[in-house]
Amino acid sequence: MADQPSDTREAAPRPAIVGAGTMGRNIAVASAVGGQPVTLFDIDEDAVRDAESEIGSTVGTLTDRGVADVTDADDVRDRVAYTTDLAAAVGDAPLIIEAVTEDRETKAAVYEEIERHASASATLATNTSSLSITELASSLSRPERFCGTHWFHPAHIVPVVEVVYGDRTADETVDTAAAFLESIGKDPVVVERDIPGFIANRIQSAMAHEAWALLESGVASAEDIDRAVKGTFGFRLPTLGVLEKGDHSGLDVHHKVLSELLGEIDRGTSPAAVLTELVDEGRHGVKAERGVYDWSETDSERLTAERDQRLLDQLEVYRAARGPPDAPDNPDSRDSSDEPES
Ligand code: NAD
């Protein structure tokens, strides 16, 4: 996966990941598996300890599957250094990825500390999923060095990372973040404007909203709604995307279907009542053993491991289908020699 010899990278200053929770620890795994040594920081010692133990087993799974370009899992594990000392983590880091709690004030306080210790030339990227990049940058003394890198869970498997401009982000900042992502085998998608939800979460939310509305209307069971998604357009998505699929169906047909259906699709501006009720009842999903489904008899560790194995299978499908196929008048068609090796 790595196209740069790891010993060159070993000698260079390490990128830092600030926040070792669900996302930060998996971003560290993605980097290590891609050949890039990183430092993982958290303010909470337990979070760091827990991350180290989880990363140990995640790397084992990935190397067993041949995802890492080395067979020795210890080499990959050794690429992650752990610390609770922010100055040591960010002091000479060329790139700092912030993945702390989704809270404006927490992030602003962390940025103040980072700017105190980091080099003036460092690039700072936030993993926020819902906060405005422009607004988060407003407290920074170097907003031009700040952008979003929006990773998706599980970050060590999902291939695309959105790289998001804020109003004052310099092109060089986005280029640096995108180059880092490519160097570890990720597939950056640049979001040119800071809009809520960026690209993927907006589309995903539109779909989720309609799925909840359908469940509420009683048109089908939760199992059947999920099966209809997984076995129809969801089944095609890694291969065809959404817009590309329009070309395959015929845009005339696509236009007609949208014209007929758009007026029928739920336009509510708050989550469906059935979702609100589940949340109010504490049925928060796997972590609470009950959500839409009953998970009380399920071993959650095994569930996660099986999920990851299936997602790794899908990663192969995504890589095989990456980008629209070559066509003579397709400006985005790419020569197969442009494909990354991983
Ligand atoms: P999390 O709660 O699992 O982890 C947050 C970590 O931040 C914790 O370990 C906490 O100790 C640490 N933290 C809190 N204050 C800190 C500080 N002052 N300094 C250093 N560390 C501090 O959260 P998460 O799910 O990993 O989310 C992190 C970020 O990633 C959020 O911005 C979130 O919106 C975003 N995100 C999450 C997901 C997801 O699926 N969980 C997906 C995409 C983006």
TrEMBL record:
Q: Which SUPFAM superfamilies match?
A: 6-phosphogluconate dehydrogenase C-terminal domain-like (SSF48179), NAD(P)-binding Rossmann-fold domains (SSF51735)
Region spans: Disordered:
319-342
- Record has Oxidoreductase as a keyword: yes
List the residue(s) that the UniProt entry marks as the site Important for catalytic activity: 150
- Domain 3-hydroxyacyl-CoA dehydrogenase NAD binding residue range list: 16-194
List, as start-end ranges, the regions of compositional bias called Basic and acidic residues.
331-342
Provide the alphabetized UniProt keywords.
Oxidoreductase
Q: What is this protein called?
A: 3-hydroxybutyryl-CoA dehydrogenase
